[in-house]
Amino acid sequence: MSEIIEPFRIRSVEPIRFTTREQREDLLKAAHWNPFLIDADDVLIDLLTDSGTSAMSAAQWGAMMVGDESYAGSRSFRRFEAKVQEIFGFKHVIPTHQGRASEKILMSIVGGPGKVIPNNNHFDTTRANVEFTGAEALDLVIPEGREPDSLHPFKGNMDLDRLGELLQTRGSDVPIGMITITNNTGGGQPAAIENIHAVRNLLHEHKKPFIIDSCRFAENAWFNIERNPSCANKSPKEVAQETFKGADGASMSLKKDGFGNIGGFLALNDDDLAEKARNILILTEGFPTYGGLAGRDLEALAVGLEETLDPHYLRYRVQTVRYLAEKLMAIGVKIVQPPGGHAVYIDARRFYEHLPANEFPAQVFVCELYRFGGVRGVEIGSVMFGRSIDGKEIPADRELVRLAMPRRVYTQAHVNYVAEVIAEMWEHRHEAVGLKITRQAPFLRHFTAHLEPVRSK
Ligand code: F0G
Q: Considering the domain 58-307 in this protein, what is its CATH number?
């Protein structure tokens, strides 16, 4: 059969609330044209993030009922630890409440002024945690990874020449090297297992630990099975196990490929590094056998880590994103190619060609998406990455909108609806009016900024 179906049936449902376009116009105004400030109850289909928004399975909910909430040495931790070790293969498993807690712990040990940490592309929170210590976060993705139209199958690969050069010229400043799979900042693009191993070997030649940001490791494994002949006949678990072989550690947000609504870990092989990490963990997260989590969370995550590697699930997962991407491309919408594992990234600059960057075309897109259909996406453009210097706006390099798919939450009909909304926006694109910022915070302004249209329609 060629039809790829949702590999589950639904026995627990949650209603979603319909609003009229007039109501949404009022809600947008009240939210100052910033969808982050709209209540989730007023959103029909929420594609803001794939993080923490997964539907848990009956097996995960069942596992929660047997959570062991002992402060020390909980049985649930042992189960969690064993599952993480089976897949990732690291000696020390340190549970945290989410990915950035792992990053904070790791960077406070290895970071510091004068240091430089390479990655394909640092995710925002990783970059922030590196920079918070005074270190530099360096992005070394391959040139194709920066080209929205390039069809390179592994646009998350690291540029090995540039990494080699960095290690030659500034080796003593590099405490660790990283790679992010899949590369969220670069469009949810995978890295080839051979590239990951080459990064590891290069770092090891220079005696540097190699840490993998593994949030979407299962999606990355699936892309390798689809696109990489060396993985074609392997199971997702085998590819995942091979991915981490020889690496020195992983930081993980289990809110993504762990099917968790909360959770993460830092896994390490080095005893000394692990001891330092646990000491900080006790200070900020909790005792090493629960970290920032309840025993019941650890149970649900252990089950989720197994479910995420089901080939039927991964085939469906990657296909839902591709399906939406293909519908949008058929309309004429330009997206980052090829579609990523967890999200479609729309090029808003080429959608609203009449809007200059200082009128925030990607923010206009997310507002119009909400106004036309009650759908929420996230702006990755000049509101997020632009800067205001003495009242003058310096735009970002790109004006993207990310439509991230929560795992196992929406059906094909929901996706058809989203595509229909965007088709209507495309027809009316010339009528869209730009936005200007009326209020902003000094850091991470996109979360709380207020905007308004530059003129009335
Ligand atoms: N690394 C990557 C690649 C991520 O995508 C995220 C989170 C993190 C680390 C941090 O994990 O949220 O559990 O603290 N990404 C979310 C997103 C927020 O919407 O892409 P966290």
A: 3.40.640.10
Tell me the Ramachandran region of residue 332: left when phi exceeds 0, alpha when psi lies from -120 to 50, beta otherwise: left
What residue spans define the domains of the chain? 21-50+310-453, 58-307
**Å from CA of 125 to ligand 1 middle:** 7
Going 191 to 194 to 199 to 204, the CA torsion angle's sign is positive
Two structure tokens written together for 291: 């970290």
Question: In angstroms, what is the span from residue 1 Cα to ligand 1's centroid?
Answer: 35
What single letter denotes the amino acid at residue 67?
Answer: G
**371-427: per-residue pLDDT in tens?**
999 999 999 999 998 888 887 889 988 999 999 999 999 999 999 999 999 999 999
Instruction: Please state the pTM of the whole predicted model.
Output: 0.96
Residues with Cβ < 8 Å from 27, sequence gap 6 or more? 19, 38, 42, 370
Q: Which CATH class is domain 21-50+310-453?
A: alpha beta
Structural contact between residues 32 and 450, judged by C-beta atoms closer than 8 angstroms: yes
Strand 343-347's sheet: what is its strand order? Answer: 343-347, 400-404, 378-380
pLDDT in tens, 192-245: 999 999 999 999 999 999 999 999 999 999 999 999 999 999 999 999 999 999
Residue 253: CB within 6 Å of ligand 1? Answer: yes
Buried b (16+ CB within 10 A) or exposed e, 225-239: beebeebeebebbeb
Report the separation in Å between the CA atom of 262 and the middle of ligand 1, taken as the mean of its atom positions: 11
For residue 56, the 8-state DSSP code is P
346: three-class secondary structure by DSSP: strand
Beta bridge partners of 344: 403
205 CB burial (10 A radius; 0-12, 13-18, 19+) = exposed
Q: Is 51 in the pocket of ligand 1 (CB under 6 A)?
A: yes
**Is the CB–ligand 1 distance for residue 220 below 6 Å?**
no
